[in-house]
Amino acid sequence: MNREELTKRLKKIIEPYVQNKEAFENVTEETDMLQDLKVNSAHLVDIILDMEEEFDIEIDDDTAEKMLTVGEALDATERLLKEKA
Amino acid sequence: MIGNDLVYFPDWKRRSGDRLRRFRQKIYTPRERIWIENDSDHHLLEAKFWAVKEAVYKSAFKKLRERKFAPKSIAIVDYDGIHFSVIHREEQYLVTVEVAKDFVHAVTSPGVGHLSFSFEDDSHYRSQITVEESAMKLVKDNFGVPHGFWKNRKLDLSVSHDGGMAVVDVSF
Fold first, then answer.
1. Distance from the CA of A5 to the CA of which of B5, B68, B110, B135 falls in 20 to 30 A?
2. What are the sequence ranges of the domains in chain A?
3. Residue A21, min C-alpha distance to chain B (Å)
């Protein structure tokens, strides 16, 4: 799966939890899910759980704690998918 | 340094079954999970635990300036339902929790004086609030941390909003 496809699927996961819809329209890899998209911090856990289900991966605590931006979430997913393959 | 959090409690009843189990594993320590699972109102207790962790995170961030999503590193070690004792980075925090209507409100021990302002429309807290008939301006620094400026004094405060409501806790 390439980065573009991964980004599309991740955006679909994040969207229901976004409160700042305008920021979501202009999302980049640097976009911070809590500060920019105003995702409620408890919903960051829901995003992690949705990612685990969508990509059939397990995101451990050490990985989760560094997943604050869209790019960091993509990096983690790419790495975990490679490890799984 | 003060830290607070406001949780809209009905949102916490939505998760169930395996989703709830996995959710709790991500954010609560094993001891916290046992407390939650053995409580007759487990959804309320987990919402309180979460609010406590968030309040401590905000307080600690003001000193550490370190952004990390590591809720299990903020461990509740004792509680009586209103007062919560928490350890984070070998430092102890005491947090007070109140429940009003559908909201859970947590605030770290703020020092000698403390005022709490709540707003039913969360758009009203953003720029300024009135304290003793004088305007207190709220300004965020480069880290997104809010500060209050009132009568030439800089005040330590914390802001939280959820469920359309906002609360500002100010330490004097």
1. B68
2. 3-84
3. 16
